[in-house]
Amino acid sequence: MNWNQLFARKNLNDLLADMKGDERLKRVLGPINLTSLGIGAVIGAGIFVTTGAAASEKAGPALMVSYTVAGLACIFAALCYAEFASMAPVAGSAYTYAYITMGELFAWIIGWDLVLEYAVGAATVANGWSGYFQSVLGKMNLHLPALFDKATVLYKDGHFESSGALFNLPAVVIVAIITMILVKGISESANFNALMVFIKVGTVVFVILVGAFYINPENWTPFAPYGWTGISFFGHPVAGQVDSAGNPVGVLAGAATIFFAYIGFDSVSTHAEEAKNPQRDVPIAIIASLVICTVLYIAVVAVLTGMVKYDQIDKDAGISSAFKHIGLPWAEIVISTAGVAGITSVLLVMMLSAPRVFLAMARDGLVPKAFFADVHPRFRTPWKSTIAVGIFVACLAGFLPIEELLHLTNIGTLFAFVIVCGAVLIMRYTNPNAERPFRCPLVPIVPILGILTCLMLMFSLPADSWWRLITWMGLGFVIYFGYGQRHSTLRVEASKTV
User: Fold this and answer.
1) 23 confidence band (pLDDT: 50, 70, 90)
2) Phi, psi dihedral angles at 262 (to 5 degrees)
3) How many other CB atoms sit within 10 Å of the CB of residue 378?
4) % helix, strand, coil for the chain, step of 5
5) Has residue 19 been placed in a domain?
6) Is residue 10 situated within a structural domain?
7) Is residue 11 part of a domain?
8) Inter-residue contact 46 to 296 (CB < 8 Å)
């Protein structure tokens, strides 16, 4: 084995030259479309599903601070993403950035990790969508048969057990519908997403403006009932309180849990190849979507915990149930319906991103090019990989519980952010004169803070999440050394020059 090949790096100039090829994706996205995609990916299951449980079980009213901490970690990573996206506006996101800076093996690791983030994240969102959809049906006295209303497997008291259901039918159906939309084209996908974003942002603003009139400041006392820390190391608490299961609770533990709410802003960078002016528009969209969503998140949590005492918040649908709690049942129906639309757009962007990562990896020969790099001649989308991702997501969403999918998505995303922040530091050293239409400010302070905050949140996740990440990466190494390393485009080209 040629160990040097494992760390061979792609040349940035060659990458930019390749952008002029005929097999590129259609450039149709402007700054508003890109920002809408970012907001569409971020605001959804994180705010409509996980907020209630995090407030009642992890942080109380101090969940506002948890969102701020998680938002800061994301801002550090977002600035690093924006620099790379302006330098290399092609499909692949952090995978491509790692290939340029750290070499092929690290690129494979981060690419495989991104597939975990987007595909498993999409399955998590589909699971959440199913719950909200069935909630809306329930308000009309309609109910699905027990064989099709939940995942096949449940996770309870530290172990998996059968739920008695065959599979989660609504989750599988919505994944199939989204897959068909994505195969059709990026313009149709972006327009559908923009409509969903309009509906859910309007709903979030409604929650803030109407709910503000029902805030009882006494509900914010005590503000941090579970403490201000909640740090663990591989599942072992090192600072703060723990719950009955031994898991850390507190502001930082809450930040690690609700980090899922921020997943998606980085997906904007995976669509750089479809942006009209990527050097300018992608950095704007990444930062704008993250700032807008952070402000909305903090405001919603302030209203939610002000309307209902933290230990009385519904864990499954906290926001809609809060309005029922204060005597506005009609608002509960509106919010639940909008929640379905909001979560749909998150699912769309997640499933839009994963095939683009596979596309970039296929172009480099690390996965079969004939399949994963096949761009539809009419729709100009990576249609085969989109269908493959759809099938994979449908299987996960139909059979596995949302809680474990959530933690697995969190740790995979945080790991990707650590790599990107580190890659900016390396690129500034190895390629200081490269053109950077957007420059991450305060280097090396911002990337280092990004690395440290993301690692802190990673270590605050349950130990099981680490073992599942290691298992996923182990599977990735089998594929890389069994196929990717031998078919690598860089390796093939190097062998021709020998």
Assistant:
1) low
2) -95, -10
3) 9
4) 70, 5, 25
5) no
6) no
7) no
8) no
